[in-house]
Design a protein that fits this description.
Structural class: alpha/beta
Radius of gyration: 21 Å
Order of helices and strands: HHEHEHEEEEEEEHHHHEEHEH
Shape: globular
Largest sheet: 7 strands, mixed
Strand order of the largest sheet: 1-9-8-7-4-2-3
Number of strands: 12
Number of domains: 2
CATH class of the largest domain: Alpha Beta
Length: 379
């Protein structure tokens, strides 16, 4: 501790600190190499038209990179648009859900999409299947035309396997997956999904404001069908327009060019090092480190009790309130340059939330655990 009174703070020895102090669950740590690459390309890229070859070439590389990273079948399309995954929820309400959807709600973000659909006047009330925070429900066959799943619930640190409901094929109901904090760090099988969508400010170590949707032929057919049905839709939320513009390697309206470039840097970095298996393996190693540390601790434990449901990209760790205040731990970390480890505000738990995204070396996660131990021992 240093100083006197309420302003005292723990000073971490430099020998135990991580190489980079950013552990936020989004926006996430951006790789310095990607920032340097953007700076090197800035003169001929930033501040140019998104419909000219220089930018369209980058968008084309990005779409090809996602196809390679996710091993997408050749008849799938990678579609891009502006507004992030939250904006895409509105697009899906206009352009993918025909009549009614089923939603699995087990945290803040999975429940948010369900709430967004509830307000769409041309849709029937969605079926919402809830589960307590810290676990997840399963999709069940129903009279719906879209099953809305969440690959990783960022607020609670719960991941779920992506599987179609038993006996349900794409002809019976499309499976649309919000993968914002899971894409790029968790494995998935395109055979089980029709739309896999996300924003790039999590595992892809970029900024927000962009959405990416990997769409199966069945999803593309549905988008075309609804687009031709006469249902009114604002052009900025039109999925047919997004599909058309993406095929030309552009977005309908101007994107944040830095976000597109930084996302491409991460995708090509992943592909060059072994693809999704390599990226997910880094997350696996970080998850093993932090959950093993918490289980061995006398004051911390994983919030998610089912090992299979524990996220490998966002870890939620409960802290014994009789030993330490998690908010104070996060504050002490922040004074030492280790930031964004606070729990999700809506959970209201004495908890730390720590990202394990591919851009974070597993060794930095181990260093963070040592820093937390150091702080708790001195509070």
């Amino acid at each position: 501790m240093t100083g006197d009174g309420a302003s005292d703070h723990v000073v971490l020895p430099h020998g135990i600190r991580p190489s980079d102090g950013r552990f936020g669950s989004g926006p996430s740590r951006v790789r310095p190499e990607a920032v340097a690459a953007l700076a090197g390309a800035a003169d001929g890229y930033l501040g140019t038209s998104h419909r000219r070859p220089g930018v369209r070439q980058v968008v084309g590389r990005l779409r090809d990179g996602f196809r390679e990273l996710f091993a997408l079948p050749p008849d799938w399309e990678v579609v891009l648009g502006n507004g992030g995954a939250t904006g895409l929820w509105d697009c899906l309400g206009f352009g993918l859900i025909r009549r009614r959807s089923q939603h699995l709600a087990f945290g803040e973000f999975s429940a948010k999409f369900a709430r967004a659909v509830q307000t769409v006047p041309h849709l029937e009330a969605p079926q919402i299947i809830e589960a307590p925070f810290g676990t997840h429900p399963e999709p069940v066959p129903a009279e719906v035309d879209v099953y809305a799943l969440t690959h990783n619930e960022t607020s609670t640190g719960v991941q779920m396997p992506l599987r179609r409901p038993p006996g349900v094929g794409a002809a019976d109901g499309l499976v649309a997956v919000d993968a914002t904090s899971g894409a790029g760090g968790l494995r998935w099988d395109p055979a089980e999904v029709d739309v896999y969508y996300f924003s790039p400010q999590k595992c892809f170590a970029a900024d927000g404001g962009l959405w990416v949707a990997c769409c199966s032929p069945a999803a593309l057919e549905r988008i075309s069908e609804i687009g031709d049905s006469g249902r009114w839709c604002p052009p900025s939320l039109s999925l047919p327009l997004a599909v058309k513009n993406s095929a030309a390697n552009q977005t309908y309206n101007t994107p944040a060019l830095a976000t597109v470039f930084l996302t491409l840097e991460t995708v090509e970095w992943m592909c060059a090092n072994g693809g999704l298996e390599w990226a997910a393996g880094r997350c696996d190693a970080s998850a093993e480190t932090i959950y093993s540390w918490a289980e061995a601790s006398d004051y911390a434990e994983p919030f998610v009790t089912d090992v299979a449901k524990r996220s490998h990209v966002v870890a939620t760790i409960d802290v014994d309130a009789d030993v330490a205040d998690a908010g104070r731990i996060a504050t002490e970390l922040r004074t030492n340059g280790i930031v964004d480890t606070e729990s999700y505000r809506a959970l209201g738990r004495n908890q730390l939330r720590i990202s394990l995204f591919p851009a974070i070396p597993p060794g930095d996660v181990a260093a963070l655990c040592a820093c937390i131990d150091h702080i708790v021992a001195r509070l």
